[in-house]
Amino acid sequence: MSSEQIISLIFDGLRSLAIATASIVGIYGINSWRKETRWKRKYELAEEVLALVYEAKEDIAMIRHSFSGVGEGRTRKRGKHESDEEREIRDYAYVTVERTNNVNETFSKLQSLKFRFAAVFDQSNTDLI
């Protein structure tokens, strides 16, 4: 075997080693990227759910607030034979229904995220969510 053939074999071996190393690094990089993407998706979903929970907490506090503002409860349809006193009492009672209807979107969003959250975080029992 001549020195040229030995050098050629060494370069072929180095080339094969470089290709194998690049392949391993590439596979490792893709797997790292996939893990990061999966984690990022979970993080963003958890962040969205947490923000909605805080928003729902504020909405519930607002719904339960004991004082009503001027004009609250007036959207209720009145009965034919209601006295002014009955109308006032029923309008006051309707305030919570009116407030709940005003913030219903938050609870709808939270409900829609329930199954997505269960799927992403592998929750088999969605009744607990």
Q: What's the short version?
A:
The chain is an all-alpha fold and 129 residues long.
- Count up the domains: 1
- What is the tally of beta strands? 0
Helix fraction bin: over 70%
* Beta-strand content bin: under 5%
Topology order in helix (H) and strand (E) letters: HHH
Which regions have little confidence, pLDDT < 50, spanning 5+ residues? Answer: none
Main sheet overview: none
Radius of gyration: 32 Å
Could you tell me the mean pLDDT?
Answer: 85
Helical run tally: 3
- Structural class designation: mainly alpha
For the record, give the distance between the C-alpha atoms at the N and C termini, rounded to a whole number. 74 Å
Shape: rod-shaped
Question: What does this entry look like structurally?
Answer:
- There is one protein chain.
- It contains three helices and no strands.
- The longest helix has 62 residues, at 3-64.
- 76% of the residues lie in helices and 0% in strands.
- The protein has one domain (3-122).
- It has helices spanning 3-64, 84-102, 104-120.
- The model has no long low-confidence stretch (mean pLDDT 85).
- With 129 residues, the chain is mainly alpha-helical.
